[in-house]
Every structure is written in structure tokens, then in C-alpha cells.
Amino acid sequence: MRFLFDANTWQEIFGSIGKNRTRTIITVIGVLWGIFIYIVLSGAAQGLNNGFEKQFQNVAMNSMFTWAQSTSMPYKGYKTGRQIQLKLKDVSVLKNRIPEIQYIAPRNVKGVFGGSPAQIIRAGKSGNYAVYGDYPISTKIATKKIYDGGRFINDEDIEAARKVCVIGERTQKELFEKSDNPIGDYIRIDNVFFQVVGVHKFTPGGGFESDSDIYIPYTTFRKLYNTGENVGWFAIAAYDDADVIKVEENVKAVLKTIHNVNPRDDRAIGSFNLGEIFNRIVGFAKGLTFMSLVVGIATILAGVIGIGNILLISVKERTKELGVRRALGATPKEVRSLIILESVFLTMIAGVMGIILGAGVLSLINKMTQGMDFPYANPTVPIPYVLGALAIMVILGTLIGLIPAQRAVSIKPIDALREE
Amino acid sequence: MIEIKDLHKSYKMGSNSLHVLKGINFSVEEGELVAIMGSSGSGKSTLLNILGMLDVLDEGTYTLDGVPIKNLNETKAAQYRNKFLGFVFQSFNLINYKSAMENVALPLYYQKVGRKERQEKALKYLEQVGLREWADHLPSELSGGQKQRVAIARAMAAEPKVLLADEPTGALDSTTSYEVMDLIQKINDDGNTILIVTHEPDIADMCKRIVHLKDGVIVEDKKITQVRASQYV
Question: Taking CB atoms and an 8 Å limit, are A329 and B79 in contact across chains?
């Protein structure tokens, strides 16, 4: 061990490495490439992972949506093909029967699932946009970012059925001048004046919502479009520890009993489960991370084997030098250590350079994708992974160095010297 | 200094065995300058290799400076070589990526001498062979004679008991050969024991004693009057 910390040893190694430059560079490139691929791949996988998480952060992961369709089986005297209509009173039934439900938001929309969008007019400008009737609770399930100075619909809006609305970024752009502050201003929705109370920032995250949507209180929507107790669909968030897939089944079962649907009729109630989608994406990202780990390790292995190969050739090339060293009094152990340490040292240098290069490329990709609509954020490689890779390289470098080192020692000094 | 008794050595060549040394009795006193002569195949290089612990003897005894040399493993042999022996080869065998000074300092490295002292000593010995100003040059930048002088400096740097030279002038022209011999004679004058394997009679005449080998046995062992190389330089 003392040998390792002896400055003389390192001088010999630096001498031998530094003065065989071509060999050193070729050797280093092999491992450098390996660790570079490893770092970039696992960093990129992590970046994608982070990107997906970022996209989903405004939606509760364990949320689901459910809506009614028409029946496909006759039941209790009702015939097939009956259109089911969800009602506002379903909310309390669902909440009572299924304790796992944390939030439930009845929602209505005009202009998304068939039906024409509402006509919006303001000061001579007009456009057609989807209008949602919402409760404030729906922001608990899918967060809405509201620009400064504005707000979302609140409970008083609901109670008084106020004619207020939250408009989208695009709606603002298309209806208002740049200099206008839309908050407090009025727009006409299907010929009824509404006061704008907020502008929401659109975050892409799947679903059917867009940056031009207009939100009005559920109660106002009901009056405006005469929808009564009807509900378009329910957005439901389960508690964090609940299994949303189970909740989805229960919700559908309860809705089927309320609306007299055959329990085996799978068509009558539709649903969509974000948790499942999210799990699938997380699984994909995990698979990607695993794959990058495997590919990276394999590439490092190939690089280290390359080092062994080149050292083997170099030992052959240096047979005479090693013979001279031994004639001058180098013990077999010293010769062996020289070759192994050269191997380990080259591996380490290559590894560190590869890590630095990989980190550079990762940060470059990060800069380039910033602001783009691409699920990629903050690509990082956890420190244990990096240290682990370095450790693997040192171990492999030692093991692979053993082969040329043993070969170097197995040549008798006299044979080595005789070789011309 | 060197004591060899009844030395036998044979090499296996397939099913045949080649008896190279057939009972050599031979001793060298301190301060001698001995030429070992013989035609090729006479066994002179084998004898030198055994003396240099680069090869092992089959039968007989070998004592170097009172130490019996037998049953050496590679590590022990390396340590003895480092401590007792300096080598000069026909093809110089300098390490081509090390400067003259680094080459000279190499045996000191294996003696675990510190870097500073190593460099000082190396420069001192380069000075002795007249190549101090070439200390930073690589072997490829030196002439044949200079390379051999660096090799001699390297052999001397370890301060060995015995200097073994295998055809030290074999690859040099006669003028350069005489320069090298002049250097070897001077080193011998300082009291160092030197053995030279050669097949050139003029080189052998510059030693103090000539041992003739033929077919694995010593046929002649005579002390001679040394011819000084300096007169030809």
C-alpha cells in the first residue's frame, strides 16, 4: 500500500504514460466514450423523468374523470340505448358511499363534446370559445395558474350565480389590446355581459382543455344554458394513499345503481384515469433509466476491455523496456504494479474526463430544450451513480490490468533483453 | 569477488538437450578487468547471464561477494541484481522515452533512492562519462558511443560490486569502441571489478586478463599486460 502513495511510483507512471502519448490518448478515448455515454444516457433519462413529472405537477396524480353515455343493456324495464344524464345530487351520494374521494367537482362545458362553442364579443371583436361551468373545487384537482391581479371562481360567485368569468391567455390576446387590462372589464358570452375576474395561464398536461377556455361559475352556467341539475362530467381526486383504480371502479358502480344501469353494462359510464396514465409514463421513464444503466455499463466495460487490449499490446511493445527494468533490479511485483497502476490511472483519467464532458453535454441539451414544449427538465445523474461508475472502472481497470501485468512478469528478463 | 565451481548449464531443445557449459571453474578478484572471449556458441553469453542472475545454473556453485547465489526467486534475483550488478549491453537498452538522466537514475529508483538524490547522482555519473550537458536528451538524440556511455553511467549509478558488459563495443565503430574502452579502463582504475564478453581481440587486449571459452569449457586463462585505449583516442 505504501507503494501507492510513493511519489516515485507516480513519477514512473506519469513518465510512462506521458511519453507514450498516442497510446495513452487512444486508450483514454475508449473509456471516456463509455462513461460519456453512460452519463449522458442516464442524465437524459432523468431529465425526461423530471420533465414528465413537471408536466403532471398541475394535475392531481390520483385523479379521474367520469361521464355518462348511453346504455348497452336493458335493465329494470329500461331498454337499451337510453342516454344517461349525471345529476348534481350524485355528488353527495358518491361522497357518502366512497370515503376515498377527497374532492369531487361537477363540471359542464359548452362547445367541446359536440354543440357549438359560445360566441364571445367584446368591443367589436368576437370569437367562439368553449365555456366551462365550474366549482372552485375543480382547481384542487387540476391546478389553474391565474395571472397576477386575477382570481379563479370562488364560493360567493357560485352562491350568487354571479356573471363573472376567467378567460384564457389566447382569449385575452384575441379580444383585448395589449395595453388593456382585462381584469374588471366586460365581455359578452352569448349576449350576456360577464365581468372578467382572472386570466389563467395554460399548462399543457393532456386532457381537452386549452388556452382559450373561459370558466364561469357552475350556477351561472346553469342559468345561462338552462342545464338544470345536469352535470357534464365529474372530476374526482382520491386521497393520496387511496388506489385511484379502485376508486374509479367504485364510482362507476355507484353511478350505475343511481341511474338504474345494469351493473355489467360497461358502456353506460365512461371514465378516464390519470393515475394509470401517469404510472405508465413513470414506468416508461424507469425503463429508460434502467436501459441507460445497462447500456452505459456495457459501454464502460467495452472501453475497459479496450484498455486491457491496448496495454497488452503495449506490454509486448515494451518487452525490452520491461526486461531492462528487471535487469536493473525491478522486482516482478514492481513491474506488475506499474502496469496495473497505469491501467487504473488511465481508466480514472478517462472516467473523470468522460464525466465532465457528459455533464457539459447534458447542460447544453438542458439549455437548448429550455422554453421548448418538450418534457425535459434538469437532467442529473445521482452522485452515487457517478461514484459507482468510477468504482466499477477502478475495479475493472485493476482486473483488466492484471492480464497484461501478468504477461509482463511472465517474460524472463533474459528473453526480454534478447529480443531485438 | 566472484567464485564459480563446476558450473554446468544445458538447454532443452525439444527432445535434445544442448550442453552449453560443461564444468566451469572460475574466480575473479576485486578490481580485475576480465575479458571473456570465445566464438559464437562457446557459451560466453550464457556464462555472463548466469553471472548476472538473468539465468540459473543447473549444477555447481556461484558465490558473489561471499553470498551464495542459489534457488533465487525472481524477486530476490531482482534485488541482488540491483544491489550487486551493473549491466552494459551490446544494444545499449536505454529506455527510449526517458532522458539520459532519467535512464541513469532508473536503477536508483529501484533502490528506493529519493528523487532529488537520484538526480544528483545521475548527473554526477553523467559527468564522469562526459555527458553532463546531454542530460536532458532522449536516447534517439545521442550517437551510438554516447548511448553506450549513458548505459555505462547507468550501470555505475547503482554502485555495483561487479560491472557486466556483454559485447559493449559490438555495435560501435573502432574509434568509438576505443573511447568506450577508455572509459571502462578508467572505471576499472578506480577499483571496480569488470567483466567483458567480447570476440574482438583488440578489445580483449585492453583488459587485464583474458579467459578463452570453447565448447563450454575454459581452454585458456591468462593475465596480460593491458593496452591502454587512451593512446588510440
Answer: yes
What's phi and psi for B232, nearest 5 deg?
-95, -15
Q: Which one of A19, A409, A417 has the shortest CB-CB distance to B97?
A: A19
β-pairing, A186-189 with A118-122? antiparallel
Q: Are strands A214-217 and A131-134 parallel, antiparallel or unpaired?
A: parallel
Over residues A396-408, the mean pLDDT reads: 87
Q: Does the pLDDT at position A62 exceed 90? A: no
Q: Is B141 on the interface with A (CB under 8 A)?
A: no
Rounded CA gap, B46 and B50, in Å? 6
- Cα–Cα dist B36/B33, whole Å: 10
Q: How far apart, in whole angstroms, are the C-alpha atoms of residue A242 and residue A297?
A: 38
Q: Is B63 on the interface with A (CB under 8 A)?
A: no
pLDDT of residue B193: 94
Residue A62 covered by a domain: no
> Are A355 and A385 found together in one domain?
yes
- Residue A121 CA to residue A118 CA, distance in Å, equals 10
A272 occurs within a structural domain: no
Q: What pLDDT does A419 receive?
A: 60
Range of the structural domain that residue A259 is part of: 70-100+242-267
Structural domain including B202 reads 2-232
For B91, which residue in chain A has the nearest alpha carbon?
Answer: A420
CATH number of the CATH domain containing B189:
3.40.50.300
Q: How far is B233 from chain A (nearest CA, A)?
A: 30
Average pLDDT over residues A18-24: 77
Select the residue from A12, A318, A328, A336 to test the B interface by mutation, using most B Cβ atoms within 10 A.
Answer: A328
ipTM exceeding 0.95, yes/no:
no
Residue A207 has pLDDT above 60, yes or no: no
- Of A136-150, A219-233, A297-311, A365-379, minimum mean pLDDT range: A365-379
For A269-287, what is each residue's pLDDT tens digit?
888 887 777 778 778 878 8
Interface test with A, best of B56, B80, B97, B111 (most A CBs within 10 A): B97
